């Protein structure tokens, strides 16, 4: 199934997308208590009649993996990592497909990424069975203020600008398949292709990432892991190129759909 969040008078609900309709599955917190038990809670309504929002709970974690494509590490002038590079986002930065993101400074950059959504409580997973913890996958744009990101050794400020985390609907793992099969990850800025990568080129696979992270912390249903971006970011261009008001960024992961983000002042 393919799910998204949407707003109601009583709070955020989770809904299953079916064509141009959305089938309500109940409040977001109740859904992530046990996704396997989610059932229809109301009659379907037109997608056009609701306001979408991320399906990631505000209590969830957003765990980011940096430099997970060799070519991106090279364009950034950084060493190829020998263990996953982990940093964090706050859920407050997340926005849905179509929502605008205000430009942040003179070095606001794009990053097309695959997101992995955890479906069950997971601690100390091994790579052989780690995919059993995955609920599904989504498209993500890790918009980044490079000046803040590189100002210190910690990337937190540059990766947590308000409204800088566009996230798409979540496609369940049984429908999406396995990213090890090789899913194309692309980014277009104003219709121009700037990134084109493939999940088969990950330095660290999704199971390896889950195993690494879950050795140190418990992963809970609704937690989101974003898995790194391929080469082609604005920081790596010569001359460097960054986003400005009026630009439109579209990122897409094969089989999961696209997320389009207008950049505003």
Would you spell out the secondary-structure blueprint of this structure?
Layout: E1 2-8, E2 11-18, E3 21-27, H1 28-33, E4 45-46, E5 52-53, E6 62-66, H2 70-75, E7 85-89, E8 94-96, E9 101-102, E10 108-109, E11 112-118, E12 134-141, E13 144-145, H3 146-149, E14 165-167, E15 170-172, H4 173-176, E16 184-189, E17 192-198, H5 206-214, E18 224-226, E19 248-253, E20 257-264
Parallel strand pairs: 6-18, 8-14, 9-20
Antiparallel strand pairs: 1-2, 1-5, 1-15, 2-3, 3-4, 6-7, 10-13, 11-12, 11-18, 12-15, 16-17, 16-19, 19-20
Question: What do you see in this structure?
Answer:
With 265 residues, the chain is mainly beta. It folds into 2 domains: 2-53, Roll (SH3 type barrels); 62-264, Fumarylacetoacetase-like, C-terminal domain (Fumarylacetoacetate hydrolase, domain 2). 11% of the residues lie in helices and 36% in strands. The chain contains 5 helices and 20 strands. The strands form 4 sheets. Strands 1, 2, 3, 4, 5, 6, 7, 11, 12, 15 and 18 form an 11-stranded mixed β-sheet that branches. It has a 5-stranded mixed β-sheet with strand order 9-20-19-16-17, with no helix packed on it.
